[in-house]
Amino acid sequence: MTNNRIRCLIIFIVTGLLIFLIVSTIIYLVRRSEHRVIHPDACPRPKQYQTNYDYDYTKNIKEFRNINSSVDYFQLSLSWSPTFCGGKQNSHNLFQCQHVFGFVVHGLWPSKNKTGRGQSNSIHPRNCRNEPPIPADVIKKYFCLMPSEKLMQDEWEKHGTCYWQKPEDYFEKINDLYSKIHIPNNINDILNNGTLGYKSIKQSFIDINPQLKWEEINVMMRKNKLHEVAFCYDLYFNHIKCI
């Protein structure tokens, strides 16, 4: 009788482990299939990458450092390249503006909840560590997300250092989040129609991203020009209401 109980217990444990392994494998494969690998030909690339792109916030009088703020949520911000290039002085010298880009990643920002109106952006974590230039292989791998070596370095030091230890981890998280957002192909049509505005842009994202809710997207427009579209996440990188 005792041997039968032991045998049944062993069978039960082994069966449970097999089920656990099968379910874990399925979850892993599903998540892997959702992850977008950046193909080398996914965007235009420079014949020669920049080598002088280091960043030092102390050399910019408008910059500040905040290493004491908590991280309450994250914001992934996408910049509309035509507006950026149209309003940037000497934009013809920028690789991004010499080619046709739509949305590019502006950055992934660890952020602090505001407790009242009128609080400045200085409450958010910023410039937490001074870092050496990002390795060239990391620049090349994620260039199609942020087609500017300087932008990548700036965003890594301004924001990434306030939560991540390595630039590879920061940009891989950006890639992971961005790969799960489908980009509408009718943005230009909306912008060319003077009667449509930010609501139409927001709705165009929701139409092809059923996981998103209206309040989980921020669309920033000024003078009928689209600047940014942002998505908000909790500390587990689930979509949340944008504050």
Number of domains: 1
Classification by helices and strands: alpha+beta
Treating each run of at least 4 consecutive H or I residues as one helix, how many helices?
Answer: 7
Distance between the termini: 63 Å
Number of strands: 4
Keywords: Membrane, Transmembrane, Transmembrane helix
Transmembrane segments: 9-30
Pfam families: Ribonuclease_T2
InterPro entries: RNase_T2-like (IPR001568), RNase_T2-like_sf (IPR036430), RNase_T2_His_AS_1 (IPR018188), RNase_T2_His_AS_2 (IPR033130)
Question: Gist?
Answer:
The protein has 243 residues and is of the alpha+beta class. It has helices at 2-34, 81-87, 136-142, 149-158, 167-179, 187-192, 198-208, and strands spanning 73-80, 103-111, 217-222, 225-233.
Describe the structure.
- The chain has 243 residues and is an alpha+beta fold.
- The chain has a single domain, classed as Ribonuclease T2-like (Ribonuclease Rh, Chain A, Alpha-Beta Complex), CATH 3.90.730.
- 36% of the residues lie in helices and 13% in strands.
- It has helices at 2-34, 81-87, 136-142, 149-158, 167-179, 187-192, 198-208, and strands spanning 73-80, 103-111, 217-222, 225-233.
- A 4-stranded antiparallel β-sheet has the order 2-1-4-3.
- The protein is globular, with a radius of gyration of 22 Å.
- It starts with a helix and ends in a 10-residue tail after the last strand.
- The model is unreliable at 25-35 (pLDDT under 50).
- The chain crosses the membrane at residues 9-30.
- Belongs to the RNase T2 family.
